[in-house]
Design a protein that fits this description.
- By secondary structure, the protein is mainly β.
- It contains no helices and 4 strands.
- A hairpin with a 2-residue loop joins strand 3 and strand 4.
Length: about 70
């Protein structure tokens, strides 16, 4: 049996949203193709080098800014 352990001091209390503009719209439904989730990139907004790797800031099609990764 596996037990997950976490430090309760790292938890934060949930607070109700105070303003309407704080509400985050849910993400659109996933597209499943061949049993795998599919996402469409609308734009690569930025990129940066981290050592030998390149990181990209991606804007996903049909998603809001808070979903950028």
């Amino acid at each position: 049996m596996i037990h997950n352990v976490f430090n309760e001091n790292l938890l934060t209390r949930y607070n109700e949203l105070q303003f309407k503009r704080q509400h985050v719209e849910p993400a659109p439904p996933l597209i499943i193709i061949n049993k795998e989730e599919e996402y469409e990139v609308e734009e690569v907004q930025k990129y940066r080098k981290q050592g030998r790797r390149t990181q990209y800031l991606v804007y996903w099609k049909d998603y809001r800014d808070e979903h950028d990764q």
